[in-house]
Amino acid sequence: MLHLAKDGIFPIVKDAAGHPLSSLPASGFPFAGTIQGEGKLCGIPSLFVRVAGCNLHCHWSTSEGKLTECDTAYAAYRLQNTFSLETEEICRLIRANTENLDHIVITGGEPFLQADALTNLCKALKQSRKYHVSIETNATLYDKDLVEQIDFFSLSPKLSSSQSPAFSGKQKSGVPLNPLCIQQFIDHARSNGKDFQLKFVYTATKDIQEIKTLLSSLKKWHKSDILLMPLGTIPTEVQAHSRETLRHCLQNGWRYCDRLHLTLFGPKEGV
């Protein structure tokens, strides 16, 4: 059994039996799938599985003093309309909606909180078809069995700017950075011919030194694995931080990470 966020498996147009749904998905298209909007796999047609629950409570504090909450708070700590499905039901839904899609993205919330159920899901999926499975994680938790089923690791360590003092003591939060855990992901990827990315949200100049300090404690990464993404849950917010983010990418040889889904769909859920 997997506990899912309200958008769960998206965008889909058929039920588990392959029958058409009565309404279009949030993408507005009469077919399943969307694109991966961030990172090395940006632009690749994908189907998303969004699990519910997270061990962090992220609110970013910008240099201008503005607070921005997690763009998927409804799946992380402000849970809304969550539901649970058996693994086999999820497999049937995915198979019915991936006629032309090869990439499955597991996201959250924090997927590794449900490592056992996700391991079973990935095994079941790969028994019937060679799906490429990505996972998006804050890299504070590690599970060997689940990691073995994953093809691409999107590691998004949360800097101190994501733990705003305005919310300290009000919400439970895990340790935002776990270098030992991050290194486990990197070691597995390097030893097994897989790929990964380290994706950081940029809010202010102070983030850069924190990133460099973290990177100095890690091994086996390349500059091309490091992505810097401007803070923002709507296009105007992203644009406000984009030039500063780009400057730091150019100065450090890191990748600039766009948020293509915001450009295409705006701040919609389920796309």
Automatic annotation (TrEMBL):
<feature type="binding site">
    <location>
        <position position="70"/>
    </location>
    <ligand>
        <name>[4Fe-4S] cluster</name>
    </ligand>
</feature>
<keyword id="KW-0456">Lyase</keyword>
<feature type="binding site">
    <location>
        <position position="54"/>
    </location>
    <ligand>
        <name>[4Fe-4S] cluster</name>
    </ligand>
</feature>
<keyword id="KW-0408">Iron</keyword>
<feature type="binding site">
    <location>
        <position position="109"/>
    </location>
    <ligand>
        <name>S-adenosyl-L-methionine</name>
    </ligand>
</feature>
<feature type="binding site">
    <location>
        <position position="107"/>
    </location>
    <ligand>
        <name>substrate</name>
    </ligand>
</feature>
<dbReference type="Pfam" id="PF04055">
    <property type="entry name" value="Radical_SAM"/>
</dbReference>
<feature type="binding site">
    <location>
        <position position="72"/>
    </location>
    <ligand>
        <name>Mg(2+)</name>
    </ligand>
</feature>
<protein>
    <recommendedName>
        <fullName>7-carboxy-7-deazaguanine synthase</fullName>
        <ecNumber>4.3.99.3</ecNumber>
    </recommendedName>
</protein>
<feature type="binding site">
    <location>
        <position position="50"/>
    </location>
    <ligand>
        <name>substrate</name>
    </ligand>
</feature>
<dbReference type="GO" id="GO:1904047">
    <property type="term" value="F:S-adenosyl-L-methionine binding"/>
</dbReference>
<feature type="binding site">
    <location>
        <begin position="35"/>
        <end position="37"/>
    </location>
    <ligand>
        <name>substrate</name>
    </ligand>
</feature>
<dbReference type="InterPro" id="IPR024924">
    <property type="entry name" value="7-CO-7-deazaguanine_synth-like"/>
</dbReference>
<dbReference type="InterPro" id="IPR058240">
    <property type="entry name" value="rSAM_sf"/>
</dbReference>
<feature type="domain" description="Radical SAM core">
    <location>
        <begin position="41"/>
        <end position="268"/>
    </location>
</feature>
<dbReference type="GO" id="GO:0008616">
    <property type="term" value="P:tRNA queuosine(34) biosynthetic process"/>
</dbReference>
<dbReference type="GO" id="GO:0051539">
    <property type="term" value="F:4 iron, 4 sulfur cluster binding"/>
</dbReference>
<dbReference type="InterPro" id="IPR013785">
    <property type="entry name" value="Aldolase_TIM"/>
</dbReference>
<keyword id="KW-0004">4Fe-4S</keyword>
<keyword id="KW-0479">Metal-binding</keyword>
<feature type="binding site">
    <location>
        <position position="58"/>
    </location>
    <ligand>
        <name>[4Fe-4S] cluster</name>
    </ligand>
</feature>
<keyword id="KW-0411">Iron-sulfur</keyword>
<comment type="pathway">
    <text>Purine metabolism; 7-cyano-7-deazaguanine biosynthesis.</text>
</comment>
<dbReference type="GO" id="GO:0000287">
    <property type="term" value="F:magnesium ion binding"/>
</dbReference>
<keyword id="KW-0671">Queuosine biosynthesis</keyword>
<comment type="function">
    <text>Catalyzes the complex heterocyclic radical-mediated conversion of 6-carboxy-5,6,7,8-tetrahydropterin (CPH4) to 7-carboxy-7-deazaguanine (CDG), a step common to the biosynthetic pathways of all 7-deazapurine-containing compounds.</text>
</comment>
<keyword id="KW-0460">Magnesium</keyword>
<dbReference type="GO" id="GO:0016840">
    <property type="term" value="F:carbon-nitrogen lyase activity"/>
</dbReference>
<keyword id="KW-0949">S-adenosyl-L-methionine</keyword>
<comment type="subunit">
    <text>Homodimer.</text>
</comment>
<comment type="similarity">
    <text>Belongs to the radical SAM superfamily. 7-carboxy-7-deazaguanine synthase family.</text>
</comment>
<dbReference type="InterPro" id="IPR007197">
    <property type="entry name" value="rSAM"/>
</dbReference>
<feature type="binding site">
    <location>
        <begin position="156"/>
        <end position="158"/>
    </location>
    <ligand>
        <name>S-adenosyl-L-methionine</name>
    </ligand>
</feature>
